[in-house]
């Protein structure tokens, strides 16, 4: 057989095999399309849930309000936008997912934060807001973030009527931006730096809902009698004692109070009567005894004294406070910074046998000292505290 005849015969065999393979491929393609059609008609059970239930699941994915989720990444509501189109639509229509905003600064942070914050505020619609923002750390990051920080602050201030919880650290020059009408504000935590006397002031008008304020290097303005009277919790840190007196005389409904006073700021003849106060923390570097004489506290149950110079005789003004107030003091925490702290604690234990006394470190966190665990001797950290 010639070479030409061999090629023709070989081609016939190959074409026959290709026809058979094409037939097999057509059959497989038909089977695949049948399966695709069947799958396209299937709905995953999770996608049949009512939007209201999906929204509730999304809400439980992020930290409970007023705590803040991260702006991006795992744990952020933005993470839900990339799962599927249906969930993206539900997340974008759920204002409660976007109402707690915390801006943190790092070397990786850039101007995108401005766009992210603006989008969150828009998505939150008319929801009340929980905001956390610190501009005091910018000098430890990069200079070109200052413009972004200014823009974000302006975005927050524009939503002042929606503020419910705020935790803001800001330079004194910007503090006046935070004042004004805050009808929904419940809790305000504000920090600034001490640039000398007089300290900067803050006032909230129409603050009908406010119950808690934590002010560091900030003084309530003289016109603050309205919202101070509504507070049940007040912390004044590094505030002159005369300003503390003025504020406390207006804040007559306080249940919890923490005071930290600069050195040599005690007024000898001050008098403060707080009929409902149950928890008081005093951080003084000078004269605890004179400070204690200023108070009459009929409802006092928990007291903490901290600072460098807690006198060995501090139990005497403590007993006088209890007698004068006719209160039933239950817990006393002593947090002396000096080396004679143990002697002070044991003297108080001997003088006040009906009071549970612990020693340890004071807390400058805005809320943990209000928790029962902070005062429970059985929950005290053995590395930092001791019981007597």
Automatic annotation (TrEMBL):
Name recorded for this polypeptide: F-box domain-containing protein
Coiled coil residues, start to end: 4-38
Keyword terms of this UniProt record: Coiled coil
Keyword Coiled coil: yes
Species name: Mycena chlorophos
